[in-house]
Amino acid sequence: MQNVVTNRVDQEEIQNERVEKVEWNKKVHGPRGIGGWLLVVFIGLLLSLLTVAIHLFNITLPALFSDSTIVRFETSYNADWTIYLTFDAVFKGGFALYCCYVIFRFLQKNPIVPRLMIILYYVNLIGVIIETCLLLTTVEAVSDNFNFSYWSIAQALAICIIWIPYFKLSDRVDNTFSDCWKS
């Protein structure tokens, strides 16, 4: 029993030692801060928020909630599209809110940001795949919609392949979003 208690005390001492903040040195620890490729990620996050909001408010919501035949003609809306448009509105609305949350945490340099970004990339890929499946079930979908949808899957997959390893392996990401550095 004493071994267990002693072992637990030793583990607590090790954890308490890790809490001490270390002086950051660029030559030893590598780059830190929102710069380099991390700046590209941040700009992409802002552009994603902007494009999702524009698509949501200019296309999806007007087509879903309008009885106007002009809006329905411009967005090629039909009663069969209700499920697709509802999913699109819910997904894009949630995605926009999540982007706002990630941007807020990103600017705070919160240690959870790498996980949030990886979740964002996976959710984007899954959402695009679901939208494509819903589009395939829509009777009146035209081939241009299918081509655009397949291209969206390819883009989301490429983004996952590039940026998820970056957030897992990058020294800049580790140094920027770590709370073990003295200011």
Kindly list the characteristics that best describe this protein:
183 residues, mainly alpha, 8 helices
Write the layout of secondary structure elements.
Elements: H1 2-19, H2 26-29, H3 37-65, H4 69-74, H5 82-108, H6 113-137, H7 143-169, H8 171-176
Short summary of the structure?
With 183 residues, the protein is mainly alpha-helical.
Describe this structure in words.
The chain has helices at residues 2-19, 26-29, 37-65, 69-74, 82-108, 113-137, 143-169, 171-176. By secondary structure, it is an all-alpha fold. The longest helix is centred in the first third of the chain and has 29 residues, at 37-65. The protein is elongated, with a radius of gyration of 23 Å. The mean pLDDT is 77.
Number of strands: 0
Uncertain residue segments: none
Give the helix tally: 8
Tell me, rounded to a whole number, the average pLDDT: 77
Helix content: over 70%
Beta-strand fraction estimate: under 5%
Overall shape: it is elongated
Structural class computed from helices and strand pairing: mainly alpha
Instruction: Tell me the span between the first and last alpha carbons.
Output: 42 Å
| Main β sheet profile | none
Give the quaternary arrangement of the chains.
Answer: single chain
